[in-house]
């Protein structure tokens, strides 16, 4: 399998939940607002024998010319957005779900961003996100999924997609967060979403206040780190600036 990170850039985020662009090449780290986090936003595309898989969809921003940044990143990687066959969603926080749809900057009309792909979404996460009404969820980014015919609503705590993509509901970072393992030809790519967002967090007993269940996140990271070492997983870190892809 071939794995390509689709970086949308680095951002700071604080308790306001606003993502502010941060240029790591020109700005000093200590210039960040006090208490803010520095994160990368990077969906991944994985090319397998059968599929072109997009994992999470970024912030959903448009470039100055009005084109989707995520679509442009895919094109720069040599992939036409219409070629994406599966979109796997770990959860629906706005920095992961913003690119589920795309908006015409002239008319304001919103469309499913990958109409030829099948979206795999945790049903309980969608229902919760549509009802909870907090700053982490922008329902207009994903509400169209309810009317889209090519959505597979995952409602089990664990299972398989096409016999080679495994998912597991963790309820750790968000109430109905899920993780994915893609297994092909002896390779295992693991995407922990925001349960396991950065390499450094895998190496320390770190409990984050921003997680729904921070202790569970920490325990899962410890388990995955050891299991991944034993089974030679390739880890995909959505929010890691320096190490988006890591094999132990």
Question: Summed up, what is this model?
Answer:
Helices cover 18% and strands 27% of the residues.
Task: Give a structural overview.
With 248 residues, this protein is an alpha+beta fold. It has a single domain (2-247), classed as 4-Layer Sandwich (Metallo-beta-lactamase, Chain A). Helices cover 18% and strands 27% of the residues. The strands form 4 sheets. Strands 1-5-6-7-10-11 form a 6-stranded mixed beta sheet. A 6-stranded mixed beta sheet has the order 12-13-14-15-16-17, with helices on one face. A 3-stranded antiparallel beta sheet has the order 3-2-4, with no helix packed on it. A hairpin with a 6-residue loop joins strand 8 (101-103) and strand 9 (110-112). The two termini are 17 Å apart. The mean pLDDT is 93.
């Amino acid at each position: 399998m071939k794995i390509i990170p689709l970086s949308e850039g680095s951002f700071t985020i604080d308790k306001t939940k606003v993502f502010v662009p941060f240029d790591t090449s020109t700005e000093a780290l200590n210039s960040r607002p006090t208490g803010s986090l520095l994160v990368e936003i990077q969906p991944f595309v994985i090319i397998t024998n059968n599929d072109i898989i997009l994992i999470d969809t970024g912030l959903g921003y448009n470039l100055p010319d009005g084109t989707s940044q995520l679509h442009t990143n895919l094109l720069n990687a040599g992939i036409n957005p219409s070629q994406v066959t599966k979109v796997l969603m770990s959860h629906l926080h706005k920095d992961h779900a913003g690119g589920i749809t795309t908006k015409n900057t002239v008319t304001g009309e919103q469309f499913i961003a990958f109409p030829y792909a099948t979206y795999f979404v945790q049903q309980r996460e969608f229902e919760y996100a549509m009802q909870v009404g907090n700053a982490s969820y922008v329902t207009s980014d994903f509400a169209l999924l309810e009317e889209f015919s090519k959505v597979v609503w995952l409602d089990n705590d664990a299972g398989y997609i096409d016999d080679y993509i495994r998912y597991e509901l963790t309820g750790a970072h968000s109430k109905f967060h899920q993780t994915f393992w893609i297994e092909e030809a002896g390779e295992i790519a693991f995407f922990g979403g925001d349960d396991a967002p950065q390499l450094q967090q895998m190496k320390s007993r770190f409990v984050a206040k921003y997680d729904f269940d921070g202790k569970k996140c920490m325990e899962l990271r410890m388990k995955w780190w050891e299991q991944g070492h034993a089974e030679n997983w390739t880890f995909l870190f959505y929010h890691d600036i320096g190490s988006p892809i890591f094999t132990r």
